[in-house]
Amino acid sequence: MPNRVPLEDGYLVFSEDGIRLLGSYSPVADVTFFPTRKRCPITEESVQTVELSREGTLHAWSFIHMPRMGSMDIDPGGGYAVGQIDLPEGVRVQTRIDGRPEDLEIGMPMRLEADVVATDEDGTEYCGFKFVPKSRPSPGSTP
Amino acid sequence: MNREVYVIGVGMHLFTKGYVPLRDMYFTAGVDALEDAGLKFRDIGCLYNGYIGGGMMEGVGYAKDLGMTGLPVVHVENASATGSSAFREAVWAVSGGAADVAMAMGFDDMARSGMPRRKPPPGRNKAVPGFESILLPAGFFAMWAVRRMHEAGTTVETFAAIAAKNWNHARHNPMAQRRADHEITVEEVLAAPMVAYPHTAMMACASGAGAACAIVATREWAERLAGGRPLVKVVASQLQSEVYSEGHVFLGAVVGPASSTERTAQLAYEEAGLGPEDLSLVHVHDAFPIEELMYYELLGICAPGEGDRLVHDGDTAIGGRIPFSTDGGLTARGHPGGPTGLAQVWDATRQLRGEQGPFQVHDARNALVHMMGAGSVCVIHILQRG
Lengths: 143, 386
What we know:
The structure holds two protein chains of two kinds.
Chain A: E1 4-6, E2 12-15, E3 18-26, E4 31-33, E5 48-51, E6 55-64, E7 80-86, E8 92-97, E9 109-119, E10 125-133
Parallel strand pairs in A: 1-10
Antiparallel strand pairs in A: 2-3, 3-4, 3-5, 6-7, 6-9, 7-8, 9-10
Chain B: E1 6-16, H1 22-37, E2 46-50, H2 58-63, E3 73-76, H3 82-96, E4 101-109, H4 137-152, H5 156-170, H6 186-191, E5 194-196, E6 199-200, E7 209-217, H7 219-225, E8 232-241, H8 259-272, E9 281-283, H9 289-298, H10 307-312, H11 329-332, H12 340-353, E10 366-373, E11 377-385
């Protein structure tokens, strides 16, 4: 298993059972936020860091026929998909997703995966995250 | 507002994809506004420079081309709502008594705008993009569009019709970036390359460079300089940042919840003492046609879900019940960044004075100008003739 490092601290963790997003739970407001907040923006009270569910549903999507931010090249396949995923905690995550327009449908179940953005000379993988259709086999699972 | 505030001069440099030094654009727009007002630069009490790209010193440096009077000069930045925010600062400076005459200047080249550069954090030896750069604005608004199609059955033809209308409005505007030599059709807009489903390149706003300037003043100054022209009064000036709402998106978000527009509009209508039915024309942040469609409803021009019908009935074209984006909007007049909100003020002011010739709205009395700024803020001003 290569050494995996999040793009930035505080957004996600790698545990034994895979990648998890980090959010903040405000007990007073009973609201969960992603990404983490310094404190609850509604009550100004303190929040608790929580690991969020790995599965949610697709609220909205699009397919982008342009280079990604910071790049001059269009992805192989003519672009990439983006989506908003609703998690059971009441959190909406805006992110890269996998899929062609014909595969994507509002309301479909989606699953979190690591998204390797860059690899260092020593093999360290810098990871963001993405959601993929839940029906797709997990990486490493037997077909 | 404590004191009444009037727009007494507006000026622009053409929005363009071509190369013109920003210093030249700044000077052209500034002199144009001063001449429109009938003022010397020495009459200006304070100056707010709005620009997104570039760096420190730029605006205050360019201002020296207009004059060196020692006046207070401040840089304002609020992403796409930068020009609108600079305008608001000028309005409040006059309203609050800090100055009798204030200038708001916007200039930019969208090509140089972007997310702040960051150095790699300690312990990382590779500069990698941060999580905030996950999404392009094109993706964000495209998701609004896909969601709208899902919920209300809106078709891509409706989006294309809004874009075609704005392209055709711009054909008559000498300051517009996209001036087509023929009537743009829905079919042509749909046939353009796809940028972010369901938006094609002809639906995406024209990003380029440009400058726009507005001068505001007290009633006394406005009356003295009117020269027989109608006065243009600022009857509402509102700016709101985000309030948490269900399904709130924080990461990679571009403009926050759509309800920001509804909330800011409500405050503006209350301040102006009028409602959407009193408006003669409207400018919005139509970076993509889904936005203009949603703002019909969020600004209260029509009931929720009825925006599509407005488009098909031609209500929002010049000559219709309530024309939107009369100068071409972000779609075709263009969206360089800093000056965009001030270009809206340029058109709204000239519309209220009856000076827009081939794209004049008949008997324009009240104009609403709206911009969203990523991050995010919503800015709304209402200008009134008289």
